[in-house]
Specification:
about 325 residues, alpha/beta
Length: about 325
Protein backbone atom coordinates (compact mmCIF):
# COMPACT_ATOMS: atom_id res chain seq x y z
CA UNK A 1 0.00 0.00 0.00
CA UNK A 2 1.53 3.29 -1.10
CA UNK A 3 1.75 6.48 0.90
CA UNK A 4 -0.65 8.07 -1.59
CA UNK A 5 -3.37 5.54 -0.76
CA UNK A 6 -2.80 5.91 2.98
CA UNK A 7 -3.25 9.67 2.68
CA UNK A 8 -6.56 9.37 0.83
CA UNK A 9 -9.60 10.58 2.81
CA UNK A 10 -12.32 8.02 3.60
CA UNK A 11 -15.86 8.36 4.92
CA UNK A 12 -16.66 6.61 8.20
CA UNK A 13 -20.24 7.20 9.31
CA UNK A 14 -20.67 10.96 9.68
CA UNK A 15 -16.92 11.53 9.71
CA UNK A 16 -14.68 12.28 6.74
CA UNK A 17 -11.32 10.95 7.91
CA UNK A 18 -8.26 12.85 6.70
CA UNK A 19 -6.36 9.65 5.91
CA UNK A 20 -6.52 5.86 6.23
CA UNK A 21 -4.00 5.52 9.03
CA UNK A 22 -5.71 4.05 12.10
CA UNK A 23 -4.44 3.88 15.66
CA UNK A 24 -5.83 0.62 17.05
CA UNK A 25 -6.65 0.09 20.73
CA UNK A 26 -3.43 -0.45 22.68
CA UNK A 27 -3.51 -1.32 26.38
CA UNK A 28 -1.21 1.13 28.25
CA UNK A 29 -2.20 0.67 31.93
CA UNK A 30 -1.48 4.30 32.85
CA UNK A 31 -4.64 5.28 34.74
CA UNK A 32 -4.50 7.19 38.02
CA UNK A 33 -5.10 5.32 41.28
CA UNK A 34 -7.34 4.92 43.07
CA UNK A 35 -10.24 5.02 40.64
CA UNK A 36 -8.72 3.90 37.30
CA UNK A 37 -8.99 7.45 35.91
CA UNK A 38 -7.51 8.69 32.62
CA UNK A 39 -4.58 11.06 33.23
CA UNK A 40 -2.81 14.05 31.70
CA UNK A 41 -0.13 11.65 30.46
CA UNK A 42 -2.80 9.68 28.61
CA UNK A 43 -4.16 12.90 27.10
CA UNK A 44 -0.70 13.75 25.81
CA UNK A 45 -0.21 10.22 24.47
CA UNK A 46 -3.35 10.42 22.35
CA UNK A 47 -2.70 14.04 21.33
CA UNK A 48 0.67 13.02 19.90
CA UNK A 49 -1.06 10.45 17.67
CA UNK A 50 -4.07 12.52 16.64
CA UNK A 51 -2.84 13.03 13.07
CA UNK A 52 -3.98 9.45 12.36
CA UNK A 53 -7.21 9.52 10.40
CA UNK A 54 -8.99 7.54 13.07
CA UNK A 55 -8.23 6.40 16.61
CA UNK A 56 -9.73 3.80 18.93
CA UNK A 57 -8.89 4.20 22.59
CA UNK A 58 -7.37 1.49 24.71
CA UNK A 59 -9.98 -0.80 26.18
CA UNK A 60 -11.93 0.91 28.96
CA UNK A 61 -13.90 -1.32 31.31
CA UNK A 62 -17.64 -0.65 31.47
CA UNK A 63 -17.99 -1.67 35.13
CA UNK A 64 -15.67 -2.69 38.02
CA UNK A 65 -16.02 -6.43 37.29
CA UNK A 66 -14.86 -5.83 33.72
CA UNK A 67 -11.22 -5.26 34.64
CA UNK A 68 -8.61 -7.94 33.97
CA UNK A 69 -5.39 -5.93 34.20
CA UNK A 70 -4.28 -3.52 36.90
CA UNK A 71 -4.37 0.20 36.12
CA UNK A 72 -6.53 0.05 32.99
CA UNK A 73 -9.00 2.97 32.82
CA UNK A 74 -12.72 2.66 33.38
CA UNK A 75 -15.69 4.59 31.97
CA UNK A 76 -18.38 4.04 34.60
CA UNK A 77 -17.72 6.75 37.23
CA UNK A 78 -18.02 10.57 37.03
CA UNK A 79 -14.28 10.94 37.73
CA UNK A 80 -13.46 8.55 34.90
CA UNK A 81 -15.67 10.48 32.49
CA UNK A 82 -13.87 13.70 33.46
CA UNK A 83 -10.52 12.01 32.93
CA UNK A 84 -11.46 10.82 29.46
CA UNK A 85 -12.76 14.31 28.60
CA UNK A 86 -9.19 15.58 28.91
CA UNK A 87 -8.16 12.96 26.35
CA UNK A 88 -10.90 13.75 23.83
CA UNK A 89 -10.34 17.51 24.18
CA UNK A 90 -6.66 17.02 23.40
CA UNK A 91 -7.43 14.87 20.35
CA UNK A 92 -10.09 17.23 19.00
CA UNK A 93 -7.77 20.21 19.42
CA UNK A 94 -5.51 18.50 16.88
CA UNK A 95 -8.41 17.75 14.52
CA UNK A 96 -8.53 14.04 15.38
CA UNK A 97 -11.39 11.53 15.58
CA UNK A 98 -11.47 9.08 18.48
CA UNK A 99 -13.84 6.28 19.50
CA UNK A 100 -13.88 4.60 22.92
CA UNK A 101 -13.44 0.84 23.06
CA UNK A 102 -16.00 -0.58 25.50
CA UNK A 103 -14.43 -3.52 27.29
CA UNK A 104 -15.40 -6.27 29.70
CA UNK A 105 -12.91 -9.09 30.24
CA UNK A 106 -15.37 -11.54 31.78
CA UNK A 107 -13.50 -14.58 33.07
CA UNK A 108 -10.03 -13.21 32.17
CA UNK A 109 -9.69 -11.54 35.54
CA UNK A 110 -8.71 -12.35 39.13
CA UNK A 111 -10.23 -12.04 42.60
CA UNK A 112 -7.69 -9.30 43.37
CA UNK A 113 -9.28 -7.14 40.66
CA UNK A 114 -12.90 -7.89 41.52
CA UNK A 115 -15.15 -6.00 43.96
CA UNK A 116 -14.97 -7.60 47.41
CA UNK A 117 -12.51 -10.22 46.11
CA UNK A 118 -15.29 -12.14 44.36
CA UNK A 119 -14.80 -14.55 41.48
CA UNK A 120 -14.88 -13.09 37.96
CA UNK A 121 -18.10 -13.50 35.96
CA UNK A 122 -18.59 -15.36 32.69
CA UNK A 123 -21.23 -17.17 30.61
CA UNK A 124 -20.25 -20.48 32.24
CA UNK A 125 -18.11 -21.54 35.19
CA UNK A 126 -15.19 -22.59 32.97
CA UNK A 127 -11.66 -21.43 33.76
CA UNK A 128 -9.59 -19.54 31.17
CA UNK A 129 -6.59 -21.87 31.19
CA UNK A 130 -4.66 -20.23 28.33
CA UNK A 131 -4.91 -16.62 29.53
CA UNK A 132 -3.43 -14.47 32.27
CA UNK A 133 -4.75 -11.57 34.30
CA UNK A 134 -2.41 -8.89 35.66
CA UNK A 135 -2.64 -7.77 39.28
CA UNK A 136 -0.82 -5.08 41.24
CA UNK A 137 1.62 -6.40 43.81
CA UNK A 138 2.85 -2.99 44.98
CA UNK A 139 3.13 0.64 43.85
CA UNK A 140 3.94 0.46 40.14
CA UNK A 141 4.62 -3.27 40.23
CA UNK A 142 2.52 -6.26 39.31
CA UNK A 143 2.48 -9.84 38.11
CA UNK A 144 0.66 -12.06 35.62
CA UNK A 145 -1.60 -14.58 37.34
CA UNK A 146 -3.87 -17.44 36.36
CA UNK A 147 -7.55 -16.48 36.34
CA UNK A 148 -9.65 -18.56 38.76
CA UNK A 149 -12.79 -20.48 37.90
CA UNK A 150 -15.43 -17.81 37.19
CA UNK A 151 -19.01 -17.63 38.36
CA UNK A 152 -21.70 -18.14 35.73
CA UNK A 153 -23.93 -15.13 35.14
CA UNK A 154 -27.66 -15.50 35.72
CA UNK A 155 -30.26 -14.12 33.31
CA UNK A 156 -30.92 -10.98 35.34
CA UNK A 157 -27.19 -10.20 35.44
CA UNK A 158 -26.91 -10.64 31.67
CA UNK A 159 -29.72 -8.16 31.17
CA UNK A 160 -27.99 -5.76 33.56
CA UNK A 161 -24.74 -6.10 31.62
CA UNK A 162 -26.49 -5.11 28.39
CA UNK A 163 -27.68 -2.01 30.22
CA UNK A 164 -24.16 -1.33 31.47
CA UNK A 165 -22.83 -1.38 27.92
CA UNK A 166 -25.49 1.16 26.96
CA UNK A 167 -24.63 3.33 29.97
CA UNK A 168 -20.93 3.13 29.12
CA UNK A 169 -21.79 4.37 25.63
CA UNK A 170 -23.66 7.33 27.15
CA UNK A 171 -20.66 8.02 29.35
CA UNK A 172 -18.37 7.90 26.31
CA UNK A 173 -20.44 10.52 24.50
CA UNK A 174 -20.49 12.63 27.68
CA UNK A 175 -16.71 12.36 27.79
CA UNK A 176 -16.48 13.71 24.24
CA UNK A 177 -15.77 10.55 22.25
CA UNK A 178 -16.95 10.58 18.64
CA UNK A 179 -18.33 7.05 18.91
CA UNK A 180 -17.68 3.65 20.46
CA UNK A 181 -16.33 0.24 19.57
CA UNK A 182 -17.66 -2.88 21.30
CA UNK A 183 -14.80 -5.25 22.12
CA UNK A 184 -16.04 -8.64 20.93
CA UNK A 185 -12.68 -10.32 20.43
CA UNK A 186 -9.64 -11.91 22.03
CA UNK A 187 -11.45 -14.19 24.46
CA UNK A 188 -13.11 -11.45 26.52
CA UNK A 189 -16.72 -11.41 27.72
CA UNK A 190 -18.64 -11.01 24.44
CA UNK A 191 -16.31 -13.49 22.75
CA UNK A 192 -16.86 -15.87 25.68
CA UNK A 193 -20.58 -15.88 24.93
CA UNK A 194 -19.94 -16.56 21.24
CA UNK A 195 -17.48 -19.40 21.78
CA UNK A 196 -18.76 -22.94 22.30
CA UNK A 197 -15.62 -23.63 24.35
CA UNK A 198 -16.39 -21.02 27.02
CA UNK A 199 -20.20 -20.96 26.74
CA UNK A 200 -21.92 -24.18 27.76
CA UNK A 201 -25.20 -22.64 28.87
CA UNK A 202 -28.48 -24.48 28.27
CA UNK A 203 -30.71 -21.39 28.08
CA UNK A 204 -31.36 -18.82 25.32
CA UNK A 205 -27.73 -17.64 25.46
CA UNK A 206 -26.14 -21.05 24.86
CA UNK A 207 -26.22 -24.03 22.55
CA UNK A 208 -26.69 -22.99 18.92
CA UNK A 209 -24.53 -20.31 17.34
CA UNK A 210 -27.61 -18.13 16.98
CA UNK A 211 -28.15 -18.35 20.74
CA UNK A 212 -24.48 -17.73 21.49
CA UNK A 213 -24.62 -14.58 19.33
CA UNK A 214 -27.66 -13.32 21.26
CA UNK A 215 -25.65 -11.38 23.87
CA UNK A 216 -23.68 -9.56 21.15
CA UNK A 217 -26.88 -8.72 19.28
CA UNK A 218 -28.50 -7.32 22.42
CA UNK A 219 -25.42 -5.25 23.27
CA UNK A 220 -25.17 -3.89 19.71
CA UNK A 221 -28.83 -2.92 19.66
CA UNK A 222 -28.70 -1.30 23.10
CA UNK A 223 -25.54 0.68 22.29
CA UNK A 224 -26.84 1.61 18.84
CA UNK A 225 -29.92 3.17 20.42
CA UNK A 226 -27.60 5.39 22.46
CA UNK A 227 -24.94 6.45 19.94
CA UNK A 228 -26.65 5.79 16.60
CA UNK A 229 -25.50 3.22 14.06
CA UNK A 230 -23.07 5.63 12.37
CA UNK A 231 -21.01 5.93 15.56
CA UNK A 232 -20.80 2.25 16.45
CA UNK A 233 -18.14 -0.32 15.69
CA UNK A 234 -17.57 -3.96 16.69
CA UNK A 235 -14.20 -5.64 17.04
CA UNK A 236 -13.94 -9.30 16.01
CA UNK A 237 -11.18 -11.89 16.09
CA UNK A 238 -11.07 -14.79 13.65
CA UNK A 239 -7.38 -15.70 13.79
CA UNK A 240 -7.07 -19.46 14.31
CA UNK A 241 -3.70 -18.96 16.01
CA UNK A 242 -5.28 -17.02 18.88
CA UNK A 243 -4.19 -18.34 22.29
CA UNK A 244 -7.80 -18.20 23.53
CA UNK A 245 -10.06 -20.35 21.38
CA UNK A 246 -12.99 -18.62 19.69
CA UNK A 247 -15.92 -19.76 17.59
CA UNK A 248 -14.87 -21.94 14.67
CA UNK A 249 -14.29 -19.99 11.46
CA UNK A 250 -16.43 -22.31 9.33
CA UNK A 251 -19.46 -22.08 11.62
CA UNK A 252 -19.00 -18.33 12.06
CA UNK A 253 -18.71 -17.67 8.33
CA UNK A 254 -21.69 -19.86 7.41
CA UNK A 255 -23.93 -18.16 9.95
CA UNK A 256 -22.88 -14.56 9.63
CA UNK A 257 -22.48 -14.33 5.87
CA UNK A 258 -26.22 -13.66 5.66
CA UNK A 259 -27.18 -12.66 9.21
CA UNK A 260 -26.73 -9.05 10.42
CA UNK A 261 -25.73 -8.56 14.04
CA UNK A 262 -28.64 -6.18 14.42
CA UNK A 263 -31.37 -5.25 11.96
CA UNK A 264 -31.25 -1.66 13.17
CA UNK A 265 -27.49 -1.20 13.16
CA UNK A 266 -25.46 0.07 10.25
CA UNK A 267 -21.91 0.23 11.55
CA UNK A 268 -18.31 -0.75 10.89
CA UNK A 269 -16.25 -3.69 12.05
CA UNK A 270 -12.62 -3.93 13.10
CA UNK A 271 -11.21 -7.37 12.36
CA UNK A 272 -8.04 -8.99 13.65
CA UNK A 273 -7.58 -11.66 11.00
CA UNK A 274 -4.91 -13.25 8.79
CA UNK A 275 -7.23 -12.71 5.80
CA UNK A 276 -7.31 -8.92 5.52
CA UNK A 277 -8.18 -7.23 2.23
CA UNK A 278 -5.23 -6.83 -0.15
CA UNK A 279 -2.91 -5.11 -0.66
CA UNK A 280 -1.16 -5.48 2.68
CA UNK A 281 2.37 -4.78 3.94
CA UNK A 282 4.63 -7.79 4.01
CA UNK A 283 5.58 -9.40 7.28
CA UNK A 284 2.65 -7.94 9.21
CA UNK A 285 0.22 -10.76 9.90
CA UNK A 286 -2.19 -10.71 11.61
CA UNK A 287 -3.51 -7.26 10.74
CA UNK A 288 -6.23 -5.00 11.99
CA UNK A 289 -8.77 -4.26 9.27
CA UNK A 290 -11.14 -1.34 9.54
CA UNK A 291 -14.17 -1.90 7.34
CA UNK A 292 -16.56 1.02 6.91
CA UNK A 293 -20.12 0.31 5.86
CA UNK A 294 -23.42 2.16 5.77
CA UNK A 295 -25.33 -1.11 5.41
CA UNK A 296 -26.55 -3.24 8.33
CA UNK A 297 -23.40 -4.38 10.07
CA UNK A 298 -22.87 -8.10 9.40
CA UNK A 299 -20.26 -10.00 11.35
CA UNK A 300 -17.10 -10.76 9.34
CA UNK A 301 -17.18 -13.75 7.05
CA UNK A 302 -14.71 -15.56 4.85
CA UNK A 303 -16.02 -13.51 1.95
CA UNK A 304 -15.80 -10.17 3.75
CA UNK A 305 -14.12 -7.37 1.83
CA UNK A 306 -14.43 -3.64 1.36
CA UNK A 307 -13.14 -0.97 -0.95
CA UNK A 308 -13.13 1.35 2.05
CA UNK A 309 -10.63 -0.52 4.19
CA UNK A 310 -7.67 0.83 6.09
CA UNK A 311 -5.16 -1.80 7.19
CA UNK A 312 -2.26 -1.71 9.60
CA UNK A 313 -0.28 -4.20 11.68
CA UNK A 314 -1.94 -5.32 14.88
CA UNK A 315 0.42 -4.20 17.62
CA UNK A 316 -1.34 -5.16 20.82
CA UNK A 317 -4.31 -6.80 22.40
CA UNK A 318 -6.37 -3.58 23.12
Amino acid sequence: MTATVLNTPVKLGHHLLNNRVVLPPLTRQRSAQPGDIATDLMAEYYRQRATAGFMVSEGTQIEPRGQGYAWTPGIYSPAQIEGWRKVTNAVHAEGGVIFAQLWHVGRVSHNALQPDGAAPVAPSAIQAEQAKAFIATGPGTGDLVQPPVPRALNLLEIDELVGQYAQAARNALDAGFDGVEIHSANGYLVNQFISAHSNQRDDQYGGSLDNRLRFLREVVEAVSQVVGPERLGVRFHRCSAAPIRTVSTSAWSKKTRTTPISKRSGCWSSQVSPTCPSPKPTGTTPQTCLTASARPCAAPSAAASSTQAATLPSAARG
